[in-house]
Amino acid sequence: MQVRYATERFLYRMSVSRHANAFLLKGAMLFVLWETHPHRPTRDMDLLFLETHDRRELEAIFREIAAVEVTPDGLRFDTASIHAEEIRENNAYGGIRVKLLAWLGTARIPLQIDIGLGDAVHPEPVWTDFTTLLDFPAPRIRPYPVYSVVAEKFQAMVELGTLNSRMKDYFDVIYLQRHFEFSGEDLQEAMRKTFQRRRTPLPDGLPEGLDEPFWKTPQKQTQWIAFLRKNRLSIEDDLEKICHEIASFALPVIQTTPFLSTWVPGRGWTRQ
Question: Which of 101, 116, 125, 266 has the most CB atoms around its CB within 10 Å?
């Protein structure tokens, strides 16, 4: 809970800084906006940065944000502790990890923020008030569109195939398709932009990451069950069923152009 509070208040400082327009919130913290009770915990924050790709410049920006004066909330961010390093070095779209320390009285709270660089999003993000734990001013931020969240996770399933160990992606997509309506046209455009940006061809058929070579592998089934237990998540433990359900959601979007149907949870793709 301390990490969640410190992350929220850092978001607030970011939102009132001169750099607010340069960031989009992404990752598991989006579910704090979308749900009353987020379905899976996270200790880290993910952002998309729309400007510099230089880690030294990002360090300077984070020091400036950490030093922003706000209504006292009990937190102090140690500007001297801020350190940025490159991550996903072997990935064409790259990223930077920022680590820093926050203090709440004598409690030391390490924070980690992963910064994505240059990803394409669709539709245009809209400004939203982030849900706060206590009665302090809410961060006003631009969250990643749910369409791009799905598109990026599906792209990872396609690119990684049977090597994919990102079980959280499978859970998040199945959760989103069971709880959100989707415009087929917008999801198709988000898919197109994401795959183009990440230099991945759209699959002609069922990708390996959703096919029998993936879900029938005992190691993958074990990884799926371990992920559910670790995060105390209540959902089917049959990975084959999960993959079939995701395929029924994602594949029609990339197989028909234009795709004008609407996804309705519990009903699937419908023409309205």
Answer: 116
The CA-atom distances, in angstroms, between 253 and each of 115, 147, 202, 225 are 28, 12, 11, 29
Report d(CA 11, CA 67) in Å as an integer.
13
What pLDDT sits at residue 39? 65
Average pLDDT over all residues of the chain: 93
Residue 213's Cα: distance from chain center in Å? Answer: 26
Compute the C-alpha angle 222/231/132, nearest 5°: 155
pLDDT of 99 higher than 90 = yes
Q: 81 and 72 in contact (C-beta within 8 Å)?
A: no
Q: Which of 79, 151, 154 is nearest to 119 (CA)?
A: 151
**Which one, of 188, 178, 191, 192, lies nearest residue 233 by Cα?**
178
Q: Would the CA dihedral through 125, 151, 171, 236 be positive or negative?
A: positive
**CA-CA distance, 207 to 213, in Å (whole number)?**
10
Strand ranges for the chain from DSSP E: 23-26, 45-49, 75-87, 95-104, 107-117, 128-129, 140-141, 182-183, 262-264, 268-270
Q: How far apart are CA 31 and CA 39, in angstroms?
A: 7
pTM over 0.85: yes
pLDDT score at 90: 47
Question: Top-level CATH class of 2-141?
Answer: alpha beta
